[in-house]
Amino acid sequence: MSLLKPLMMSGKEVLPLVEGGKGISATNGKSAGAWAAAGGVGTVSCVNADSFDDAGNVIPQIYHGKTRIERHKELIDYAISGGLTQIRQAHDLAGGNGRIHINVLWEMGGAETILEGVLSRAQGLVHGVTCGAGMPYKLSEIAAKHKVFYHPIISSARAFGILWKRAYKLYGEWLGSVVYEDPWLAGGHNGLSNAEDYRIPEDPYPRVVALRAMMNKFGLQKVPIIMAGGVWYLRDWMKWINNPEIGLIAFQFGTRPLLTKESPIPQKWKDVLTKLQEGDILLHRFSPTGFYSSAVRNQFLKKLEGRSERQVDFKAKQTEEFSAEILAGKKKYFVKPEDKSKAEGWIKAGYGEAMKTPDATLVFTTPDECKDIRQNQKDCMGCLSQCKFSNWSQNPETQYSTGRGADPRSFCIQKTLMDIAHGGSVENNLMFAGHSAFNFSTDPFFSNGFVPTVKELIDRIMTGD
Asked: Distance (Å, rounded) from C-alpha 174 to C-alpha 225?
């Protein structure tokens, strides 16, 4: 694959291969340092990153605050400490090669405070910041202040145009790249707009051509685009390389590096990846962020699907339309006559607790499930800027509330991602993955249980395979 030439990224010529940042503990200092040591761009996830004790053991992130605001402050402190721990490890392992980026989600709780806290203490160790999950207008200002390059994650030319005109043009010299993350192919949270149909994937090529055309209009011909989502074999992207319609191009690998020796995810998570089939990844909207996201359709997601299916409109008082009375969890509700038999069937099947949603519906759960949901909502530590599951908002002007009721159709994302990343159940936790993850079962490079090092994977990628 000699056509894939080094290019300038975050101030240095590197291989145009970028490690996808992912989320909680799915990329860390070890994986990012190895990726950079091999000549590419390693990415440390600064989303609730791990710290270690003197014996090298992960320090559990336990929250002691009695209020959400107190726990939110603890979460920020954990994030800054963990981020610095992982960045220093990545820097040491890189040995001066490649580039080290950090990845943050703009909609994570305390994103600006965490970025400031990490970058102010990691001068010379971090070369770039990738950021998505929202419209990170202040990203350019923060990055320029600390003299690091910023790499916004977008899913359309329109989104980048808005960011550039409103904020980024003031700090254009620090724009390191634009990451196009395909909303139908990428794992994790995706930037699908209301105008796009999640059921009808669009070809990424014309979307990236449109992005390049807009960037050229702004004089950004020398700024690379990073293609993210669905990238597995480079041979499938030959049309993109040295193509004037695309311009400077790099490729981000998020899912494929999960199955490497340096990957920090637990072995049982890796084992699941090798057995996935096409169609096993679900693009869904259960996330408390409100964004679409892609993850393995395991028991965790199936339970969320079932919970939303056990749902009816209701009124607290009887009306002409809502005239049928039901009793659930010792409480009386009124539903439409045509929904009464459904609700009573669910109750009889063991889903006897009815939980109100912000949309004036009831969802039916088991008593244990209801108790778990209530406890998770109570334990909220503000891991998002605003959360539909717990109704938390980090905005003091709204009294730290979204203004809507807590939504039992969602879940505590921080709890489940922390659990799976540190050895918890792979069936009963959220397992993010890109839609190309099924390739693990057919890729000959991973046959017979072979698990490569990051360097071996990058060497393989460079061959086109």
From this structure: 14
